[in-house]
Amino acid sequence: MKRPMSNFGSQVMRVFSGSRCSTFAMVWSFMGFVVLLHLISVCRQKDAANEGNHLRTSNRPIYLELETVEEDNLQIPPPKGKRSPHATKSKNKNRRTHPIVDEFLDKKSQIRHVFFPEKRTAVDPMNSAGNDSFYYFPGRVWLDTEGNPIQAHGGGVLYDERSGTYYWYGEYKDGPTYHAHKRGAARVDVIGVGCYSSKDLWMWKNEGIVLAAKETNETHDLHKSKVLERPKVIYNEKTRKYVMWMHIDDANYTKAAVGVATSDYPTGPFDYLFSKRPHGFDSRDMTIFKDDDGIAYVMYSSENNSVLHVGPLTEDYLDVTHVMRRILVGQHREAPALFKHEGTYYMITSGCTGWAPNEAMAHVADSIMGPWETIGNPCIGGNKMYQLTTFLAQSTFVLPMPGQQGAFIFMADRWNPSDLRDSRYVWLPLLVGGPVDGPLEYSFGFPLWSRVSIYWHRKWRLPKGSSSSTK
Ligand SMILES: *[C@@H]1O[C@H](CO)[C@@H](O)[C@H](O)[C@H]1NC(C)=O
Ligand SMILES: *[C@@H]1O[C@H](CO)[C@@H](O)[C@H](O)[C@H]1NC(C)=O
Ligand SMILES: *[C@@H]1O[C@H](CO)[C@@H](O)[C@H](O)[C@H]1NC(C)=O
Ligand SMILES: *[C@@H]1O[C@H](CO)[C@@H](O)[C@H](O)[C@H]1NC(C)=O
């Protein structure tokens, strides 16, 4: 009996809100509703008691260092003179933004070094002063083992069990930023998908471009004038192929498709197979997720980013099936990053404001196919402005922390729209546990779910006992 209450509750809700009848009927409905609430709460308590984890608080250990709330006082200088034109050139001009977002998008901001620290502060695994070894510094330039800034934006990490190695795939954006036309978004020509390998999640070796752009074939999906975003790779045990899914588009984002590529090796080269509109729908920001039972899913922003679609892939992971559900309908979310903890599915998403940062939301579900429920902003610490802008970044992936129960690494991109190749990585600890903040749609105000928390840290490292820090 896997939490039938959510479904039950949502049906009740539908019936209840759908009836436009007399006061009499309303009163009776309401009384029935109250009785139901009581029943649900009784069942809930039994459930919780049986499971021995009251209110779904997880049994994970406490990670004192990671869960320390770290304040970061940030003073925004008073506006003086004219802002650079780029400050107002986000994709959604009319949307009201937070002052920090204007400051962030202003190339001439006096506090730009706070958002984009100078290269001399780079995290350099090959030349790190002993004390900073294995520390993540969110927002600083991060160098690979050859001393070059890592190019793996909008990325994801695959743990390859066969080699015991992590592979980080992402957009290789080391080219000039320009606008294809006056109203177009800032872009970099497609170069390809970058791949980096690591045993410890800190020191990354460049494995090269594993899926390269086409220089000359203008009709090809991978022509440099097109768009390739958010590549993600999973391994198929049956076919023994590494399968990459990505967002494929034209410069105006009208193609709105997914692309699929495969390789026999994690380090490629990947063979590009095709692009398509999954389930016949437009598909922009996307991710794939491989569940414990080997079934993989694709999730993508659709219907002009107003809703997310989710559906299982075929057994070979090369296509979608006919099964699809619409989730977070009308919520306008993108950049989904999925993960699973103690049998429950979680997800972090962003709003849709182009390259400009916005507020992250956490979502939770018993089944990956939904219903999904929004449980609020997961960002903790830093300052209010950081919390309202996902630490000036956008979600891309959530990776389980090796050997740590209930602890994850939240991976996000701090986009630099005036120079996209200089976009930074914001990696922070994410923990699941504790009750959520507010009353929720499907739970009638009962805190049925665990909280998802992403803690700001100026610097942090994986806890001792992670396979990575034992090296
Ligand atoms: C490392 O830490 C020690 C003790 O905290 C300190 O004395 C030393 O100056 C630090 N070294 C560097 C290179 O930061
Ligand atoms: C260019 O790409 C298209 C679409 O993938 C393909 O059909 C065509 O054969 C390619 N042309 C050349 C010359 O490779
Ligand atoms: C994109 O839109 C612009 C302006 O609306 C148009 O001039 C251009 O041809 C379009 N490009 C593509 C690749 O569709
Ligand atoms: C998305 O927007 C386009 C252009 O505004 C419109 O033609 C199309 O019908 C919309 N699609 C959906 C599914 O809402």
TrEMBL record:
Segments for region (Disordered): 73-97
Compositional bias per record (Basic residues), positions renumbered to this chain: 80-97
BP GO terms, sorted: carbohydrate metabolic process
Keyword Hydrolase found: yes
Pfam families in the record: Glyco_hydro_43
Record Gene3D superfamilies: Glycosyl hydrolase domain, family 43
CDD domains reported in the protein's UniProt record: GH43_CtGH43-like (cd18825)
PANTHER family membership: GLYCOSYL HYDROLASE 43 FAMILY MEMBER, GLYCOSYL HYDROLASE FAMILY PROTEIN 43
This protein's name: Uncharacterized protein LOC115747065 isoform X2
Organism the protein comes from: Rhodamnia argentea
